[in-house]
């Protein structure tokens, strides 16, 4: 009954198999090998983006920070949701990498309101040296609030960004869950909706520690490579990052895993909602659930070995993953029902 | 016949096995899991340093840069060899991470001369704001020149650093080869000789992409953790970095691999030295060899599929690894003899 | 009728005289001269702080940024008001200098609410690497909203900061006006109320471009000096910064000027408040006034040569200075009354 | 007998007069005033560069650092002489501002050898992420060694820079002395010889603390303005920086002062060269002189009140300024002759 985070799950078999498969002989380092080239192609195909520049890095924080630093100037404002991961959980790394400043855009349940974004951008004055200059917009899908930006909602944000000439980045730490939840294709949920750069998360979906950064416009690709190197994020044995993605995507396993995780959250939601005294926040769209539980229930669950985080005393965040079982969900529900 | 670098080799079986072994169930993220704790203990035991703070990161560049940034102030000078990896191959990352400046110390074949180090430190003026302040010393063992700092030579550098109150860092990207070449223990070649922080390289010795940073004095451990996080280098699934080290060290395989690599280089050296027109630089102590080859020989070798870097037209750098075979060495020698 | 800002006024005669007075012969550079030592003493005496470290710099932005960078760690959160100068008007410089992050504290009319500050600090988790760590608190007095923190209000903020072990910085770009408005002494309004570091503004009070940074605890003085140097802010001919302060403070002229500026604002407020259709924001405590004016009045005033900034179409910010005359105020009032 | 540095001299009367002249009434801040516009024009005219972007800052360090940061990328190598001010006397500021790395070019007496510069640039590999990328070249004229780059020598350096597509910056802290020594015009010694950006020093030539940065190609002017602001170097009362330049340049006083300073150094050189046991380095071209003096002579001079720096025990650096008198020179010579 582990619901603390999807980053605590092990790796699915196809990922381990892919690692073994590339563990043969010598391979040129720093991405100049056939395995890496193949994985890049797999991702280009998945996103229907044959020209995209694709890079593998090892953490979500650096995927976000390098992406933003590449497209926003040193004096740039990066507009993000008030509770975005870049704002709350990256220890100031976005400011360090970009040189600029995060400016916060409100919105319910982790989603920026397009009108609020427009207002925030307008408040900065391009051409006036006293304030940072509009630099980029970043949205998270699935959001920290467990909600989804649909294709239309993504497009609405992109329209505001484009109206101000700003690039749009997507923090897709849980992009697989967003694709599964939306029913859209990766392309529809990104470049077709106006997204320019994606941090395509693998770790929370089952990889050991691998994220792909995708620039649909490869113009600044070499700048990204220099930034990756000088932040210590260029792997020599890139094949082992690339292989994880290849194994995970081939055959559509990445999406199967995400669908499973989302289904487990739905199962939890459905079961918990029936319990008196328990309130399930209705906005959950994917694999993150917020549930108000009586204090006694919290205690009982934890005693029984359930692992999850609380906000305050009684507001539980439950996160499911590819490795969550129906049995765990049902047991959790049963314990909460007692 | 792959002699371009030891970072192009695959991973030995025990590393793959260790990854499989930890790929079970959920584990708390960010290093708070039993696997990581166990690997930390393995390294503490190996270095006879039960109090040491030990961290796992994924690249040698970041191991060096985070180490130096933690112990040298923003305005600090880091003294290194003229051709050190931090100076020549990290794209300015040490300056970015530390905030300071590298100052170069000459010395033959990649080894700093203690007297030259002393002179360089004295040239900076502590307490005078116009110049950077002495911050730290870093040496590389095995050096970029393929040479070894013996225990005594390490101690000589440490004595100079200590006389000026400076911490001593060791870039140990090929520390395994240094231990193998010196016959000393890890402790003797580090803290017993005055080294304060080690970048203990795993990648070049056979890991997928894993380095350990060891602070023998754990005083600044939390600062290191914050710096690791804000540079995007904190893995959530730390167990997969830790396991690589555990599998590699348990049973002494790490040292067996290094001894093998060193032996392959010695085999090459011995065979090549006998060939007329070929000159083997005599300083090689481990798994890096510099060899002057006739241009025709270079062409013949490359045609036959040998992979190696040249400096100028005829000065080859040959690097062996755990995966280098006797057959490859002998074939290379045979081709060079034709 | 120049009410755009107090930084557009010329220098009063005693400042020019002081510059002439020190313009004699050679003087050791970089602050090692008798003139600078004397001005340091003048400020120590003014603040009843004989042990304070006092430095002269040329802009308010750098006074704030160097102060905060010296006391808040690289990963530090600096808590400031939502509309503080450091947040809105320094183009991201505080993040660049400190390495950290500004976190915003609400409060009416430019003043942080102590309870809101406490809540904001508590929201950061010391010891958790995912978020920036509480680093420092900065308040502005006179605030950007034209309001005053009284001694008691300053103390209330300081109490919160101290409860969390955080240093308290005062952005005193208009500190002279605050002293004049409060009736307190400089010591009462700073260290006696719990302030640790002051950016003591001279420029807006009549100097050419000179600010003093005061550390009541001189422990980190040398760090400040290094930071000043490496940001290009160490003047060689420091005597010319120091002399401005000396001339301005000796004889109490600095406070006379501030009292005059405050009186001019009060005169404006009184006159404008009587006009139908004009609303004077009642919180103004010193030399900044916010006034709602009919659009026609704005047009008439500007046509007649009045210079001032608008927020929106009709909300004027009027700033008075030592050089503002009664005539200008009365003429402005008369024009607004037509 | 003050020969420690030209930055210890007072300001000449025309500078004080110019300050008084602009100290009238209100003036729009941040450079948007008529005084500043006028001084910009004066400098454009002086350099025969009507399109140049001209900015006023307060220290030489920041003039250099902002110039280089504007034209060299974050991952750029800035090539400079081994003993350049940016390398030895700016506490690492150039690395902080540019984000890059200084790479050192040897050459006798402070002048880079063109061939050595070419070699240093070639050693960096454009397009290879492991090393910093060629970013800019900076030369100093008058050099730290007291020597001059003639127009032809400047052109030789520029030719190398241009061949590699690199911008050329001139650290002209003593540019006035270089113009005086060379007999060339400012234009001939800068853009006509291939210089792209100049730090035109005023402070060492008699100003209180004012330097002008000149971009002959104004393309990156706004970037410079943003960098100036976010490093805390944008003055509100810019008129007082601008006026100093205007007063100093109008009527050619700046050059008269430089000629005087150079003549005083020549007078010293001539007198000292005649003394037995004293050796005057023959390369001196302007207002810096290196003189080997017997230890007893050093002691006698200092006892008599002469102020100068020594390198080692007996190698004196003597710097003259606009304020150095013939009497001081002759007295120094006389004391050295005893």
UniProtKB/TrEMBL annotation, chains A, B, C, D:
The name this protein goes by in its record: L-threonine aldolase
Membership in a protein family: Belongs to the threonine aldolase family.
Oligomer and partners: Homotetramer.
A single GO BP: L-threonine catabolic process
Gene3D superfamilies, sorted: Aspartate Aminotransferase, domain 1, Type I PLP-dependent aspartate aminotransferase-like (Major domain)
Reactions it catalyzes: L-threonine = acetaldehyde + glycine; L-allo-threonine = acetaldehyde + glycine
Domain of life: Bacteria
Function: Catalyzes the cleavage of L-allo-threonine and L-threonine to glycine and acetaldehyde.
Keywords: Lyase, Pyridoxal phosphate
Cofactor (UniProt): pyridoxal 5'-phosphate
A GO molecular-function descriptor: threonine aldolase activity
EC number: 4.1.2.48
Aromatic amino acid beta-eliminating lyase/threonine aldolase domain: residues covered: 3-291
Xref: Pfam families: Beta_elim_lyase (PF01212)
Keyword match Metal-binding: no
């Amino acid at each position: 009954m582990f619901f603390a985070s999807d980053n605590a799950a092990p790796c699915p078999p196809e990922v381990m198999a892919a690692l073994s498969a590339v563990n043969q002989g010598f391979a040129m380092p720093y991405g100049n090998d056939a395995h890496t080239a193949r994985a890049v192609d797999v991702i280009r195909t998945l996103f229907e983006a044959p020209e995209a520049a694709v890079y593998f890095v090892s953490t979500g924080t650096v995927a976000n920070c390098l992406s933003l630093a590449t497209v926003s100037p040193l004096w740039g404002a990066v507009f993000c949701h008030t509770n975005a991961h870049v704002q709350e959980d990256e220890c100031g790394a976005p400011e360090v990498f970009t040189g600029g400043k995060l400016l916060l855009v409100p919105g319910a349940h982790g989603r920026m309101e397009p009108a609020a974004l427009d207002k925030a951008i307008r408040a900065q004055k391009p051409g006036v040296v006293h304030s940072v200059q509009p630099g980029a917009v970043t949205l998270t899908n699935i959001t920290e609030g467990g909600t989804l930006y649909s294709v239309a909602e993504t497009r609405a944000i992109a329209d505001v960004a484009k109206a101000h000439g700003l690039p749009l980045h997507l923090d897709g730490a849980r992009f697989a869950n967003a694709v599964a939840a939306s029913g859209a294709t990766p392309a529809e949920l990104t470049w077709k909706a106006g997204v320019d750069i994606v941090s395509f998360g693998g770790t929370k979906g089952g990889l050991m520690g691998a994220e792909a950064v995708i620039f649909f416009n490869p113009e600044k690709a070499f700048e990204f490579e220099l930034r990756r190197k000088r932040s210590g994020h260029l792997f020599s044995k890139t094949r082992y990052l690339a292989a994880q993605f290849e194994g995970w995507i081939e055959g559509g396993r990445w999406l199967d895993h995400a669908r499973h995780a989302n289904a487990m959250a739905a199962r939890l939601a459905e079961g918990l909602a029936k319990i008196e005294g328990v309130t399930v926040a209705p906005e959950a769209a994917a694999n993150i659930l917020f549930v108000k539980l009586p204090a006694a229930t919290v205690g009982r669950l934890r005693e029984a070995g359930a692992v999850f985080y609380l906000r305050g005393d009684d507001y539980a965040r439950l996160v499911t993953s590819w490795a969550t079982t129906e049995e765990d969900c049902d047991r959790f529900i049963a314990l909460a029902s007692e």
